Amino acid sequence: MSGVPRLSRPAAAALAVLGALAASASTAAAQLPAEGRALWVNRFEYDSPERIAHIMERAAGAGFNIVYFQVRGAADAFYRSDLEPCAVLLCGHLGGTPPYDPLDMAVREAHRYGLQLHAWLNALTGLPAGSAAVCATLRTSDPGHPDHILLRHPEWVMLDRRGRQFPCPNSEEYVWLSPAYAGVRSQLAAVAADIVRRYAVDGIHLDRIRYPSADWSYDAASLALFGGQPEEHPAEWDAFRRALVNATVHETFDSVTAVRSGVVLSAAVWGVYDDRWRWHTEEGRDDLMQDPRVWAREGYLDVVVPMTYLRVKGAYCARADWVCAVDDHVTSVQETLGHDVYVGIDAGQGTRAVVREIRLARRHGARGVAIYSVGAIESARMWNAIAAAFREAPPATTRAAGASDAPR
User: Does residue 27 carry a pLDDT above 80?
Assistant: First the structure.
């Protein structure tokens, strides 16, 4: 999809954009393992070639077969890129020359141990915003290196309903980019395609592929495309913003598969898709404008990775119950749409809980798990426990869970 057409009737805006996404996606089969056992490695968890080699060795030894290795945090690069500036954590300042290539090292070491390496990209985060010092790192790149997207296009940020820009610093961790701007979508797609073209990655893994909340983005491009007053058409406005996120994923899929077929496209998505249990918790679909079930149904996402960082409760579907949320994703995505679900597990909750959730994910039919993250695993010294859990024979699955089979 090359762009989102301008629409004059707000009631038809979302449907028109969604309809534009209905074009058939590539049918090339992604190369997926029989059971996905994925490990998230974020950009703060490696700082040298030796550290990357160590992570891959330990991951393989524990039985993981996929590593989601973060190489784009906020429109920056943890690899050698001609499209985005070198990240501050890698180069010491924004837009310098990398002392080594983390992605190249990660691919080589992962493949050495038989692991798939999927490049993990934050999609719509434009600038880290945790502190004034971090905000001040936005600066012009060294000569011969690309400038940051927000230096080239400061107008591409999300705005609130009063037209105010995301402040920096803020409590959302980032200044966010609006997917209503075609350049925001095409930049992500170009970065993903460039990685697939130049590195032997097995997949692209998208994160932060959403809005930070329903209060954003009332920027000029979004309002012009919508063609009306959002407050007069709230349902259509929400559907329209979801459609812009859909378009972002679709363009990335098209760009990646045009370079190389069989590359897996996955996405880390919100743990609760739709709060139909009245847990009064944040929803991916209606609060964050994220609808991975559309992406899977339309064929431009291979694997849904819900960040189900909840807890197993004593009663099935009690408030924020991990098992209940897992069943919802497995039933709606895997069984209904035929796309794999790798259930997200928070390693920060401790070894016993992680092992229990690996077993429960298998029992409830998920085709894989994804554990966040390597740092938490190492802090709790749980490599051996995870390895033992992965070696266990998968139990018979429970396809339709109820109160009678709630975990004890």
Answer: no
